[in-house]
Protein 1
Amino acid sequence: MTTRIANVYVHAPFCARRCCYCDFAVHVDRSPDGGRWLAVIRREFEAVRDSGEAPLAETLDTLYVGGGTPSLLDARYVAELGDLIGRGRMRSPGFEWTVEANPESFTRDVAREWKAGGTNRISFGVQSFDARALRWMGRLHSPEQAGSAVRLARAVGIANVSVDLIFGLPDGVSRSWRDDVERALDLGVPHISLYGLTVEKGTSLCRLVSQGRARMPADDRYREEYLFAAETLAGAGYDHYEVSNFALPGFASRHNRACWTGASYLGLGNGAHSYHSGRRWWNERDWGTYAERVERSGNARDGTEALTPEQSRLERIWLALRTAGGLDALDLGPGAAPVVRDWMSRGLARHTGTRIRLTPAGWLLLDDLTLELEAVLNRR
């Protein structure tokens, strides 16, 4: 029986400004043509559907609209995605429709239109509540607008709200990480995501660092900020269910969980990735090139790969270790036991029944620990 896809991601690439650290597939446009965006997404969706290579389930588990800044679009185009994907596919119990938004472009009209269209979860790119840090990042919202956006979502009946925060800002960027975490808690949102700042090639931040105009924090401060947030949020009742994500009971992201457990997903839009039956493919990153290719042929594929058994195993290990569910030791064999014992002696992991779960300290070393375990398995 053919496995069908129950999770869909749609990319809305438009941003009013590119943040200094951003290397995402975004397109700077303060007044994007939402009609063209929706038409191109429709064209790609219909081409993929008709090809049969990514069969959708009769009912979806999740629909996620990310960016970019989806809230820059006229709200009706996001709402009309429901008609494009098919309203009948959105009737499963617990169906989750997330849309990302920036506080400055999340207006009352956007909130109402999205709610009426079927959106039931919003993820806000807050990043910080410090005005100086926001200016340095290139963010356009104020600390006050972040709180106002959350209240607007609640006012229209969307209680499932997430906020993103960034830690590990360069030395010299004045802000209190403790204050940022506490202000996020004061909002009472049921989901909080933390992301450590990284220097990506081609970004403004990369140029600043290479020119000596910005200095990234020492490992100790990066570690301290992450562990402080993990301890504080856990103490406030949040489940640290994945390396970067915290949720009150019942509010873990279903879309993200699907990706971490190896479920199939379909990605639409420039730069979007898809995964199904051991095969991954991805689209052209540039919005203009992607749109022209889709309008011409329905396809803007930029690459595809079939995972080897070794690649699949490494990915399963990495995905499992990044979640609170951890990895089943019975799948690893006795050869991995010395490695796991070493992790536990260093406070990086704990053993519960047959499950190996990383601690927050272990999550800081996730990539290294995954490769260490993989090396042991390869020697069997």
Note: The radius of gyration is 21 Å.
Protein 2
Amino acid sequence: MGSFGSKATPGLCQAIVSLMPPHVLYLETHLGGGAIMKRKPPAERSIGIDRDARALEAFACDYPVELVHGCAHDFLAAFPFRGPELVYSDPPYLHATRRSRRR
């Protein structure tokens, strides 16, 4: 099983991936462990964004992924969207909304 907040729990990744429309470019913000990125079919171009350099250093995928160390909001605001993109964004929950004391 994955880490706290991971989407690598049995069945969850598949459910999320099955809802994705066709796309040429896939952007995943708040990449973390990249559970969704690793389990979806590759797009022509895939970009993973995270502020945590350790998460990016530890990330590995079976297909090429451009990794961006920085703020997803800034990246998306400056990105030249053209239409065939899919953005998957699952940012961390605010501490005030969490019931678990694990974090």
Note: The chain has a mean pLDDT of 87.
Protein 3
Amino acid sequence: MFDSLKESIETYIEKNATEKRRVHTEGVRHTAIKLAEKYGAGDMVLRQKAEIAALFHDMYRGVSGDILNYYVKHLGLDEKRYKDNANLAHGKIAAAVMEREYEITDEDLLNAVRFHTTGRPGMSLLEKIIYIADAIEPNRNYPGVEELRKTAGRDLDLACLQSLSNTIEYVRGENKYLDEDTVLAKEYFENRIKEKGEHL
């Protein structure tokens, strides 16, 4: 099942994604596999899930606004939150399509794609891997990415907190809509790290 699913989504990406999106997706796949190997203690299922989630995560990132809004409406997503907002909507749409068209029922896998942009409180190991892989894949180039890569190499929770904090600062600075899941995720990781006795 894993190989046929991988082949199916690879074919979709090859036919539908731009070159830039294909390069990014491949970067996320490579990074997610490395993180799964590092933090998964040899768990082959985690490695496979990380690869599948990485391939699916941006499959609706580059679609037109009309197509995006069509999916938002017909999938019953919150129009107030997701209409005309490709950044927030594309992960939710991809997860819904995974479930409906690819018959994927693994909730952890679906959530890894669903929340890869915003994060959320209580993220699983797989969710953290995809969230961070998307932020630090080799083609990413923005202020603070090198520091985030170093943090991700030693502590995923700290890396998530760092990335969430950067996102909140950026979104507020641009005066854009800030998803509540991102704010709650930041609070969750702050508390989690305090409980572990680490320094923020």
Note: The mean pLDDT is 95.
